[in-house]
Amino acid sequence: MQLGMVGLGKMGTGMARRLLRGEHEVVAFDVNPQAVESLAADGATGATSLADLVERLTPPRAVWLMVPAGDVTKETVERLATLLESGDALVDGGNSRYTDSVAHAAALSERGIFFLDAGTSGGVWGLEEGFCLMVGAEEKSFARLEPAFATLAPENGYARVGRPGAGHFVKMIHNGIEYGVMQAYAEGFEMLERGEFETDLAQVSELWRHGSVVRSWLLDLTAAALAHDPGLEGVAPYVADSGEGRWTVETAVELGVPTPAIASALFARFASRDDDSFSLKLLAAMRQSFGGHTVKRADE
Description:
By secondary structure, this protein is an alpha/beta fold. The protein contains 13 helices and eight strands.
């Protein structure tokens, strides 16, 4: 099928390339012309603007956004609303707040445009491993775009989880859980690092990957990070948060659901901005490993 891809950062480029490998037709646009040129060299059709991208798509169109959450997404959705036509579909695959997605769906429905929110997990590894897709959509629009979902995701790695807004709601909670799991690993490894037995952290992390009940992909990435830099000497204990953890805790308060592990993990990231601990260095290293997030170097 034919899709327009708007936003060619780490995730957007990986998704576009996976779609091309699946023999889909991709029309691509980014504010960085070099990113468009790079993808065009792989077989995509480059566009010079949002209007040009829409013009190059055959109705009923499908446009996929992979741009930063917040104002950038809002402005892009509003601009595309004036360019797309009734029957077209717009997918937000970024990390938007689910309440924004509910509002976008309502506004676009008035124009006859289908809105889908696709919570996307997979990071920089998604190109090869596939992207987990949590999709909020009407059944009709989900079925129409399902060939693209099937190409982007690994086997059993995509699903319609509810009406528009549900995709980003599920992804928000996914990321809140991720905060808690990462924090537990980080705290445990700091105890090992401070303990009296001079434990080889790289060895233990590799050991736990085989048969242990705490094995996971995050542990795989932790083992790789420790094998590369056992003391994490090049990493500053500064851990950024990209929004979803905060939104999860705020929503938990609204729903009256106790989430002490997730809340503590979020506050630990806040504390990292004025701290020097091994656990926080490990958290920063994990974020870089799975998502390509920039790490603050120790000498900065």
